[in-house]
Design a protein that fits this description.
Layout lengths: L1 H24 L6 H26 L1 H8 L6 H23 L3 H28 L5 H24 L2
Protein backbone atom coordinates (compact mmCIF):
# COMPACT_ATOMS: atom_id res chain seq x y z
CA UNK A 1 0.00 0.00 0.00
CA UNK A 2 2.82 2.42 0.87
CA UNK A 3 4.45 1.84 -2.54
CA UNK A 4 1.17 2.74 -4.23
CA UNK A 5 1.08 5.97 -2.21
CA UNK A 6 4.56 6.79 -3.55
CA UNK A 7 3.30 6.11 -7.09
CA UNK A 8 0.41 8.51 -6.57
CA UNK A 9 2.75 11.08 -4.99
CA UNK A 10 5.00 11.01 -8.06
CA UNK A 11 2.04 11.54 -10.37
CA UNK A 12 0.60 14.36 -8.24
CA UNK A 13 3.95 16.17 -8.01
CA UNK A 14 4.43 15.95 -11.78
CA UNK A 15 0.89 17.29 -12.26
CA UNK A 16 1.69 20.19 -9.94
CA UNK A 17 4.92 20.86 -11.84
CA UNK A 18 3.01 21.00 -15.13
CA UNK A 19 0.28 23.20 -13.66
CA UNK A 20 2.66 25.78 -12.20
CA UNK A 21 5.12 25.41 -15.08
CA UNK A 22 2.45 26.26 -17.60
CA UNK A 23 1.29 29.13 -15.34
CA UNK A 24 4.84 30.51 -15.24
CA UNK A 25 5.31 29.99 -18.97
CA UNK A 26 2.20 31.97 -19.87
CA UNK A 27 2.64 34.79 -17.35
CA UNK A 28 2.42 37.81 -19.65
CA UNK A 29 4.51 36.87 -22.68
CA UNK A 30 5.28 33.20 -23.20
CA UNK A 31 8.69 32.13 -21.88
CA UNK A 32 9.42 28.44 -22.50
CA UNK A 33 12.86 28.67 -20.85
CA UNK A 34 11.29 29.90 -17.59
CA UNK A 35 8.66 27.20 -17.82
CA UNK A 36 11.25 24.45 -18.30
CA UNK A 37 13.51 25.96 -15.64
CA UNK A 38 10.74 25.28 -13.13
CA UNK A 39 9.39 22.02 -14.52
CA UNK A 40 12.60 20.07 -15.13
CA UNK A 41 13.96 19.85 -11.57
CA UNK A 42 10.53 19.28 -10.04
CA UNK A 43 9.64 16.48 -12.47
CA UNK A 44 13.04 14.78 -12.30
CA UNK A 45 13.18 14.94 -8.51
CA UNK A 46 9.57 13.81 -8.18
CA UNK A 47 10.06 10.75 -10.37
CA UNK A 48 13.73 9.83 -10.06
CA UNK A 49 14.23 11.04 -6.49
CA UNK A 50 11.21 9.32 -5.03
CA UNK A 51 11.93 6.17 -7.06
CA UNK A 52 15.53 6.14 -5.86
CA UNK A 53 14.52 6.51 -2.21
CA UNK A 54 11.86 3.85 -2.74
CA UNK A 55 14.43 1.46 -4.19
CA UNK A 56 16.91 2.00 -1.37
CA UNK A 57 14.60 2.12 1.64
CA UNK A 58 11.64 0.06 0.48
CA UNK A 59 13.25 -2.12 -2.18
CA UNK A 60 11.70 -5.39 -1.08
CA UNK A 61 8.17 -3.98 -0.97
CA UNK A 62 8.65 -2.18 -4.30
CA UNK A 63 9.91 -5.34 -6.01
CA UNK A 64 6.97 -7.35 -4.68
CA UNK A 65 4.51 -4.68 -5.87
CA UNK A 66 5.99 -4.85 -9.37
CA UNK A 67 6.25 -8.63 -9.46
CA UNK A 68 10.06 -8.57 -9.60
CA UNK A 69 12.70 -10.51 -7.67
CA UNK A 70 13.75 -9.09 -4.32
CA UNK A 71 17.18 -8.43 -2.86
CA UNK A 72 18.94 -7.77 -6.16
CA UNK A 73 22.07 -5.63 -6.22
CA UNK A 74 20.82 -4.32 -9.56
CA UNK A 75 17.84 -2.85 -7.76
CA UNK A 76 20.16 -0.95 -5.42
CA UNK A 77 22.33 0.13 -8.34
CA UNK A 78 19.25 1.37 -10.20
CA UNK A 79 18.19 3.33 -7.11
CA UNK A 80 21.60 5.02 -7.00
CA UNK A 81 21.31 5.90 -10.70
CA UNK A 82 17.87 7.42 -10.12
CA UNK A 83 19.14 9.44 -7.18
CA UNK A 84 22.01 10.70 -9.34
CA UNK A 85 19.47 12.10 -11.85
CA UNK A 86 17.62 13.85 -9.01
CA UNK A 87 20.78 15.29 -7.44
CA UNK A 88 22.06 16.29 -10.89
CA UNK A 89 18.83 18.14 -11.66
CA UNK A 90 19.02 19.99 -8.35
CA UNK A 91 22.71 20.81 -8.82
CA UNK A 92 22.15 22.26 -12.30
CA UNK A 93 19.13 24.23 -11.08
CA UNK A 94 20.78 25.79 -8.02
CA UNK A 95 24.13 26.34 -9.75
CA UNK A 96 22.31 28.28 -12.45
CA UNK A 97 24.06 26.49 -15.30
CA UNK A 98 21.36 27.51 -17.74
CA UNK A 99 18.88 26.08 -20.15
CA UNK A 100 21.30 23.83 -22.05
CA UNK A 101 22.42 22.06 -18.87
CA UNK A 102 18.81 21.72 -17.71
CA UNK A 103 17.84 20.24 -21.08
CA UNK A 104 20.72 17.78 -20.87
CA UNK A 105 19.42 16.53 -17.54
CA UNK A 106 15.89 16.33 -18.93
CA UNK A 107 16.85 14.42 -22.08
CA UNK A 108 19.02 11.92 -20.20
CA UNK A 109 16.21 11.39 -17.71
CA UNK A 110 13.58 11.04 -20.46
CA UNK A 111 15.79 8.53 -22.28
CA UNK A 112 16.03 6.48 -19.09
CA UNK A 113 12.29 6.77 -18.49
CA UNK A 114 11.55 5.69 -22.07
CA UNK A 115 13.75 2.61 -21.70
CA UNK A 116 12.10 1.89 -18.37
CA UNK A 117 8.65 2.18 -19.96
CA UNK A 118 9.63 -0.28 -22.68
CA UNK A 119 11.00 -2.65 -20.04
CA UNK A 120 7.83 -2.49 -17.95
CA UNK A 121 5.63 -2.86 -21.02
CA UNK A 122 7.57 -5.91 -22.18
CA UNK A 123 7.37 -7.36 -18.67
CA UNK A 124 3.59 -7.07 -18.84
CA UNK A 125 3.31 -8.58 -22.32
CA UNK A 126 6.00 -11.27 -22.26
CA UNK A 127 5.57 -12.51 -18.71
CA UNK A 128 1.91 -11.59 -18.27
CA UNK A 129 2.96 -9.52 -15.26
CA UNK A 130 0.01 -7.16 -15.21
CA UNK A 131 0.97 -5.27 -12.08
CA UNK A 132 -0.05 -1.60 -11.94
CA UNK A 133 3.50 -0.28 -12.51
CA UNK A 134 4.04 -2.46 -15.57
CA UNK A 135 0.77 -1.43 -17.16
CA UNK A 136 0.89 2.30 -16.43
CA UNK A 137 4.52 3.09 -17.23
CA UNK A 138 4.16 3.28 -21.05
CA UNK A 139 1.07 5.48 -20.70
CA UNK A 140 2.75 7.73 -18.14
CA UNK A 141 5.69 8.12 -20.53
CA UNK A 142 3.34 9.36 -23.26
CA UNK A 143 1.74 11.85 -20.84
CA UNK A 144 5.15 13.04 -19.65
CA UNK A 145 6.36 13.56 -23.21
CA UNK A 146 3.13 15.37 -24.10
CA UNK A 147 3.58 17.71 -21.13
CA UNK A 148 7.08 18.68 -22.25
CA UNK A 149 6.34 18.78 -26.00
CA UNK A 150 4.98 22.33 -26.25
CA UNK A 151 7.63 24.17 -24.23
CA UNK A 152 10.40 22.20 -25.95
CA UNK A 153 8.92 22.93 -29.38
CA UNK A 154 8.59 26.62 -28.57
CA UNK A 155 12.10 26.79 -27.12
CA UNK A 156 13.68 25.31 -30.25
CA UNK A 157 11.79 27.50 -32.73
Amino acid sequence: MFIQILDVLRIVLVGIAFYFGYSIGFNGTYNPAAQLHFMIPVVVVAIAGISGVEGLLFGRQAALEKGYETGSNYQKQSAFALLSYAFGALWVYFAGWGTEAELTVLFVFLFFFALSAVNHGLEAVRHKNYKWQNINRPFLLVLLLAGFAYPLFMLFQ
